[in-house]
Predict the 3D structure of the following.
Amino acid sequence: MSTSAPAARPAAVTALQMKKSYQDKTVLAGVDLTIAEGEVLALLGPNGAGKTTIVQILSTLIPADSGTATVLGHDLRREAAAIRAGIGVTGQFSAVDDLLTGRENLLLVGRLLHLPAAERTARATALLDQFGLTEAAGQLPARYSGGMRRRLDIAMTLMGRPRLIFLDEPTTGLDPRSRHLMWQLIRGLVAGGVTILLTTQYLEEADQLADCIAVLDRGRIVAEGTPDELKRRIPGAQNLDDVFFALTGRPAQPEPDEQQEAAR
Ligand SMILES: Nc1ncnc2c1ncn2[C@@H]1O[C@H](COP(=O)(O)OP(=O)(O)OP(=O)(O)O)[C@@H](O)[C@H]1O
Ligand SMILES: [Mg+2]
């Protein structure tokens, strides 16, 4: 909870001055980030701000150009394998295999993790139940709704019982009901002691779920704090939309013409 003393908790993630560029485009211009164990950090930012890049770097998928980071007590550069053993990543785009049923997708992940057969089966059955997918377990994901597919994606991430989970935009594109269901599932993970780095474009989502919010804009963290701290920092702000606008001079959700611009 945001009222507890954060200093008492060890850090699950500490990143210092992370930089990343593609050709002459600077994506991360020196990002500092700390996530306490058992906490939810919401990384908030508009399209192209660098959210996925941060997730990819901290989950060992791509290297940073410079900077240092410790993840679950391991050095990001030198101990990538130890980090991978303790984390789960649900990417922005689905990792679900459409040629396998829901249950088969989970069992495949269990196989890749070298779980013993009995544990694979038990874990898949428990996760299908927990994520409301038992009835659909034997169907191909092509028949799933967007929310069901996203839940299967996250269930796959949990097969290995990660202590730290990266959720890259877990609710983008979901209807309000599916989004609220996802929030409940995420709260359940937190209650089980898991640390979460969540990226989102929805300020309400960060407000609902996060102990700490880091606002990313054009490759830099422009504000960090509890939802209440951020709201207090901007006098007159009624909600996090107001906070984002005050910090960046732009709305958090890109305007339709800006989206078209970005697609060009
Ligand atoms: N492999 C790559 N090559 C070149 N540019 C890249 C590459 N990956 C990302 N970028 C650029 O880096 C910037 C940040 O991308 P990133 O995917 O991290 O943003 P994001 O905050 O996750 O955006 P979104 O909300 O759209 O998912 C974008 O301008 C993107 O075009
Ligand atoms: Mg992204």
The beta strands are 11-22, 25-36, 40-44, 66-71, 74-75, 87-90, 164-168, 195-200, 212-217, 220-225. Confidence is low (pLDDT under 50) at residues 255-264. The first strand starts at residue 11 and ends at 22.
